[in-house]
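Can you give me the bound-state structure? Components:
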Amino acid sequence: MVGKPQHITIAFDVMGSDHGPAEVVRGAAQLSLESPHIHALLVGDRPVIDEALASIKHNGERISVHHAGDFVGMDEKPGEALARKPESSVAVAARLVAEGEAHALVSAGNTGAGVLACKRHFQLIPGVRRAALATVYPTRGVRGAKQDPFSLILDVGATVEATAEDLVAFAVMGSAYARIISRNERPKVALLSNGVEPQKGPPRVVEAHQRLSQMPGLNFTGNVEGIDIPRGTVDVIVTDGFVGNVCLKMLEGVHDTVMELAQYAYKESLRWRAGLAMLSSGIERLKDITDWEQYGGAPILGFDRIFIKAHGRSKARAIANAGKVAAKAVANELGTAIQEGLAK
Amino acid sequence: MSLPDRIDPRPPRRIYRWDLDKTYLQTDFESLRDLFRTAFQKAHEKVAIPGASALIRELAEQGDSRLCIVSGSPKQMRAVLEEKLKLDGIQWDEFVLKDNVGNLLRGRFRALRGQVGYKLPAILESRVHAPVEAEEVLFGDDAEADAFIYSLYADLIAGRVDERVLSQVLEAGGVYPDDAARVQEAWKKIPIADPVRRIFIHLDKLTPPAHFTPYGPRVVPIFNYFQAALVLLADGHLTAPQVLKIAVEMVQTAGHNIITLSNSFQDLLRRGLPLQQAAIALSQAMEGPNALLKAMRPMPDILAAFSKRLAALGTQPPPPRVQAVDYVSLISHALPRTHKARTLKPPT
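Here's the bound-state model for the whole set.
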């Protein structure tokens, strides 16, 4: 387990994001200007990184480069790609973190490859059988000292079939993450089910409910339904990777459809256009507070090292914020907090 | 036979020219408030950039160099600046300050902020009295026009810039006719030689290093003075133990650490500077029972970190390309920041 370091080094997988390496380099450069205690280790094609870095404002004392000649593309199958490309940027970055050259990994590349690279190089925290991919979702309510308008949902795809034991571990991990990153002292944790009653849901959810109810130190509030996700009834929603992923994709689909409908309305009728124009400042404000870029990325929880998966479409600001979130998780010893939570 | 009144010092083999604000001293004059604070600071309140005083002291160790300071600070600050240099244990040979009151009284407002018309004649006039074989290393920063002026100076005395280009540059730079005449006069007195080895630009404003690429590999933008020390070790101006002393001062007084120093080293390697031999020399300097080196506790770790940073690069980047500097097209680099966007009228 990594102790509490004075200076934190974050390894950035520079290659493979939707906007290309220059955007990740820009994010790391921004981080080098804003956060003196964070150092960026850029892993990827050295000449490409150097060219991008030389032309942007950065602090060279806080950035180093590790050459990796290959990368995994977004459309590649993770297992096959990593087997074929052992020197891909995400694999090299994960290895460097495992070797102690950096404290955490940030990648905006292929999610599956990132998770698999971590599985190969990192160790699971004692008491955790499977890792969970968490994500934040904008909600009606705000939470924690940071007034985050997001709730955390996990797992959204790392572990498709989770047991009751896995769900319990996910709840502890999500609670620790919300406590540290959102500065929410007692985050409310719930299981996603098809009813709020304890006996509702498949056997693994019922069993997990029973075990979570008896866990001291965890603010478990019971079950929630799908409708509670956007309402923000609780701070951490726990489910398995299959259901979580379906929920996430559906929520994204609803969001996209609403946007398309708004665009349609804007084009279709002058009255609707006027209405939207009158609402524009409110919409902008809403966009600001629910801007996922400020949150940086989604954590992969359960490993002894931190991995923040930034969105594939991340721009420099989101990358820099992902680096800050990773550094915060390292500085507050997230791994230790999870381990202690599981031991209770 | 009587003895001479004084024994002439040895002619300098090397000349180190330094700017002060933002090159040697940490100075803020982005706002009027900063400007006032800087003007009324006492000597002991002024802070040198980490490693700068150690570097100057180590460069002076050989005893055959001259330290020439040309600063844009007003003459009225001489006493406090001299006191600061003395506090830092620095001895200088020349110390030129700007006559801002004189410029103001004579209505030469362009000269208040302009750098080309002030620094270029000052360093050319200084070179007139230098032995032709004395090589030079210049230190400036990215706040004003140091890279442009120093490079122009180097190419003028090397005979790489002709009179036509010089006239164009002086005109476009808004240089007053009397200052332009001083430039021409001093330039003509200097025998053609190519003495300028390096121009270090301290990246106070963190200007992207690629901004200085048009000046060629002689100009080395640096994030800190450890980087300058490494290049000067490779260039034969410093020894490895001297570089270690500079690094130790930066570690002990300015919060530098293994990561910042090894990142600084790798940053130069990535820009194609040939520092492998310098790294070997540093490793060798660490060997043996040297009490001073034992005091430098983090050094072995730093050298290990250097090796890792070197290995992390894969193949060694190619050295930067040597090219002729197109001063006319770079003239915007030489103008005071507020004037850059404006169309310049010819000086009257």
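A couple of observations. The domain at 8-128+302-343 of chain A is CATH 3.40.718.10 (Isopropylmalate Dehydrogenase). Chain A has three domains: 8-128+302-343, 133-244, 251-286.
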